[in-house]
Amino acid sequence: MLIAPDSPYLADASGFSGRADELFLPETEAEVAQLLAQANTAGVPVTISGAGSGVTGGRVPQGGWLISLEKLTKLEIHPGYGIFGAGVSLHQIHAAAAASKQLYAPDPTEWSAALGGTIATNASGSRSFRYGDTRRHVRALRVVLMSGEILDLRRGTKPPFEIPIVPAPGSTKNTAGYYLRPNIDYLDLFIGSEGTLGVVTEAEMDLLPAPADLFTGVVFFESDDVALSAVDAWRPVEGLRMLEYLDAASLDLLRPRDKSIPKAGRAAVLIEQEMGPAGDEEEAWIERLEASGALLEESWFATSARDRERFRAFRHSLPEVVNDLVRHRKLTKMGSDFAVPIPKNREMLAIYRETLDREMPGQYCIFGHIGDAHLHVNILPADEAQWTKAKDLMTEFAKQAVALGGTVSAEHGVGKRKRHLLPLQFSAAEIEAMRDVKRRLDPNCLLGQGTLFDPL
Ligand SMILES: Cc1cc2nc3c(=O)[nH]c(=O)nc-3n(C[C@H](O)[C@H](O)[C@H](O)COP(=O)(O)OP(=O)(O)OC[C@H]3O[C@@H](n4cnc5c(N)ncnc54)[C@H](O)[C@@H]3O)c2cc1C
Question: Of ligand 1's atoms, which has the minimum distance to the CA of residue 126?
């Protein structure tokens, strides 16, 4: 079907927009295969769309066909695993898993995301501190190549050609560039490839037994320094699955929405721990919290599933507020996705603060997955000139993160908006090795044009 220039399909959550000649909503895998083969023969570029919650422009086409997989909605729950169509949302997966007393572990917090999108970006998020990225939970994938060939790939199936190896960064998370590691399975190539190597139509994903109970809290601190010391002390706690951070500016952004944020709170750390059979975690936490110097009276602790959902919504509302603010200013998001090795967390944070307090004071906030030394810096420029300045600062931060052994993208991918960062992490030869893999699977380079690499 033809697509109106102001269609929501032509943008993503970052506010980045594009154009397409036609939009397709196939209802079966066979239709996807037919469309890709047709586009391949005609030389038409194809962009794949999930739910559009991405923040790097990956699903935003720059011409050609846009294929949304939203109608692939198979959903089967089994003991230990589920089989899901690419268009099934995380909302649906989490709900179906919970109804069977199981847990779908990957939690990139934005539950409108479609499974296919989360596989294509190798999404992670708040629970990755314990459970790692989406890749770790993939058992099998069905993928359609640009030629129309359909692949049915299980763990253990090796790629049909030799894979070049590129180095991994020292951060615990990374989704920049292709996953070219020794002894990978064929399906690993497609996970995190941002819709440039093949189209995921269906996936078999691990489901874990749901924990009996959780200890969850939003712990407030009078200063950043005390909060950071608590994070360092708590990282080794066994069973801790969430360690998330909000700085003072982040709390200030949320205050108009949530009057219960304590006035003295200048940093907050969200914790969530799975309770073991002994159930002695709560007492251990009381000791830990007292030793941490937290604002204990003012902190929040969950006593029900409703409280836990409130805390989740509280944390998630922050990127939403930031994204809305930036869109309201008719700009695109200016947020980082860099991660560094855990021992470098404080050093990287100090670099962010010193630079931004000097260059753009009062116009940024920092929050995110501090358990993995993966913080999102969001700069809030007032106009185009400041946006350009902020973009240059982000490029400098990317260089610093790489110099500290980290990555330019831990979970969002680089898409189109951040592809200029890839050469900061990888040499020209390494990027060429990635392009070789791309040519092997998509010889005409039509799939996801402009994502990861400059269009040829
Ligand atoms: C408020 C907010 C908070 C967020 N928090 C997190 C977070 O904590 N962690 C995190 O990882 N991300 C986070 N994100 C980013 C986003 O939710 C993830 O990147 C998500 O994985 C994107 O899924 P989607 O279905 O919306 O994909 P889209 O945005 O539609 O597409 C993303 C990429 O995947 C490709 N793609 C989509 N479907 C397929 C498919 N079936 N086959 C092949 N390629 C495909 C697209 O071409 C594109 O390159 C957040 C976003 C928002 C708005």
Answer: 8
- Identical fold between 8-69 and 75-209: no
Task: Give pLDDT tens digits for 31-84.
Answer: 999 999 999 999 999 999 999 999 999 999 999 999 999 999 999 999 999 999
Distance in Å, CA 54 to ligand 1 centroid: 4
Q: Cα separation of 227 and 425, whole Å?
A: 30
Q: Is CATH 3.30.70.2190 correct for 212-320? A: yes
For residue 52, the CA-to-ligand 1 centroid distance in Å is 6
Cβ-based neighbours of 278, under 8 Å, separated by 6 or more = none
Q: Any idea where the domains of the chain sit in the sequence?
A: 8-69, 75-209, 212-320
* Lateral strand order in the sheet of 75-78: 75-78, 81-85, 199-206, 138-144, 150-154
Give pLDDT, residue 126: 85
- Is 242 a pocket residue for ligand 1 (Cβ < 6 Å)? no
Q: What average pLDDT does the segment 339-362 reach?
A: 97
- pLDDT above 90: residue 143: yes
Is 145 close to ligand 1, i.e. is its CB under 6 Å away? no
The atom number, within ligand 1, closest to the CA of 54 reads: 29
320: Cβ below 6 Å to ligand 1? yes
Q: Is the per-residue pLDDT at 145 higher than 80? A: yes
58 Cβ inside 6 Å of ligand 1: yes
Q: Ligand 1, residues 49, 111, 244, 312: which to mutate, most atoms within 8 A of Cβ?
A: 49
Domain 8-69 fold: 3.30.43
pLDDT tens sequence across 416-432: 999 999 999 999 999 99
With a 6 Å cutoff on the Cβ, whether 412 touches ligand 1 is yes
277 pLDDT higher than 80: no
Correct CATH for 75-209 of 3.90.1150.10, 3.40.120.10, 3.30.465.10, 3.60.110.10: 3.30.465.10
Taking residue 6's Cβ as centre, other Cβ atoms within 10 Å add up to 8
- Give the DSSP letter string of 379-444: E--SSHHHHHHHHHHHHHHHHHHHHTT-BS-SSS--TTTTGGGHHHHS-HHHHHHHHHHHHHH-TT
- If one residue of 48, 119, 201 were mutated to test the ligand 1 pocket, choosing by the most ligand atoms within 8 A of its CB, it would be 48
The secondary element (H helix, E strand) that includes residue 194 is: none
